[in-house]
Fold this protein.
Amino acid sequence: MKVGLRQSMAFLHTWAGLLFGWLLLAVFVTGTTAYFQDEITRWMQPEIKGERHLVASAEGAVDYMRQHAQGVETWSIQLPGKRSVAAMGYWKEKGETYLQWRDHAFMVDGRGVRVDARDTTGGWLLYRLHFDLHYVPVLWGRWTVGLAAMFMLVAIVSGVITHRRIFADFFTLRLGKGQRSWLDAHNLGAVLALPFHVMITYTGLVTLQAAYMPWGIAAAYERPADYHRELTGIDAPPTRSGTFAASAPIADMIAQARARWNGADPGFIAILIPGDANSVVKITQDTGTSMATRGETLTFDAATGHMRTPPASRGGAAMTESVMVGLHAGRFAPPALRWLYFLSGLMGSAMVATGLVLWTAKRRLRLPDPTRPHVGFRLVERLNVATIAGLPFGIAVYFIANRLLPSAMTHRAAWEANWLFIGWGALLLYVFLRPPRRVWIESLSMVAVAYLAVPAVNALTTDRGLLRSFVAGDLVFAGFDLSMLVTAAGFAFAAWKLFRRPLARVRETRSRRERIA
Amino acid sequence: MRHPIAPALRIASRAFVAIVGGYVAAALYAATMARWLPMPRTEAVMIGMLASFAIYAGVAIMAFAVGSATRAWIWLAAGCLPPALALYLSTHGVFA
């Protein structure tokens, strides 16, 4: 049996796409929200107000740890980027690993004062979800998503080869024509943002390449740690002297770093063995200040505030990697470009979603008995609704849980995350229990209601509702609430379109089915 | 007449070349570049890693583009031979 290239590529495209389609959709949707990770986190911590002041919050964090965390291994400060307000400090005690950082984390606002914000993982949860998944060991999550990304890359290449008229697809969208419309929509989303899809998939693999493809490191180095040390130019950690020494002002070291980086902000500070005479301060450039995301790390002697010789500049390949990761994360992007990133991400999500729907639309007409489709068809059909509507529903529930769970609750942040999956799981269950005819309309309506509820619950439970944010000129809070309303409108529109689908068309589809059968 | 399970087996065979063979080929090329590219080690390692996913995708496409599953295996073997040889030579002190 010999088939043409286009046919075999169409086969590959269909099945590579379907196999990981649902996971890819989840990765695309949560990854797309991550472009507004900082804004989501701000919305989820309404207690944090005021203006960003980088140096004051760094000083405040250091002061706090000087009072509460003497004699520990490391003090760390995640400084607020341009789109955040508060710094986050945390320390690591002897014998702890960095994974336990949440146990000693605190927030410091722009006045340098510790703020008691509700415990939340914020936008970070959705960001982490898009490559670590949840409830599974991080390594498993990353390998699963990595394999899905490889399938995506293969689906893109085979999809392009399958195409007859890639240029014409820019301008083709025939609405209301069933399967043909789904194909047009799939092509439009895929082709219009094709450079984005290729870029985001390939650079996504590159972000975790040392885990996915460590064989070059293994071939050239005895230990992987040697490679990472040589690459980053980071020297061995300091050893304790046992004598106490007060630290030089952190503001002065920040000023030195800024001067070296032409004014670019630092994003991260680590103070190793604080209080010891051998203590060092490491200041890393903010990941959002340049397209190359891996900023330089400068080392200072804490006692004197003297900067050590900076590491050698990166080679061409390392710089390429840094820019590729920067392009993926888009942390450098100013507002207009950030929205373009977001829209491209939505288009990617739409491409995957329409591809999944297309799989069923194409096969529905060819079913031997349309009233009783085979198990595989029914499974794909239900999983499509459960993912396309279920995940957005879960995210809305996550936002609502953030406002409704009591502040003093233990494991509060973990429960917020649990609610995302409770919401998603509930919708999945619903989808599998209802007749397929109604399930799209009902699920999409439920998602619309959930997103409508988010700003309402916000207005009822905080003093930062949509109206007040508007009056106060608070773009982040107003923008978030408005985005929820737009999302609600989008899902409501989809539900309404399905509801109003002219009966004539349904009859026509039915008669076509009969003719084919 | 052919056995009805044969088409499924042929697809499984191609899928194996694509998924496992593709990874092996990518790993071989990444390791070979890390050892052979004439530049600082970190750079050679980095280029190998950056290129590896394109090689992986290329093998996966090849596995389904060629005329038969057998050919997919032959092309995979032919593609893996040069880096495997180069890697063997460099790790056994013959060259480089």
Summary: The longest helix of chain B spans residues 6-36. Chain B has a mean pLDDT of 92.
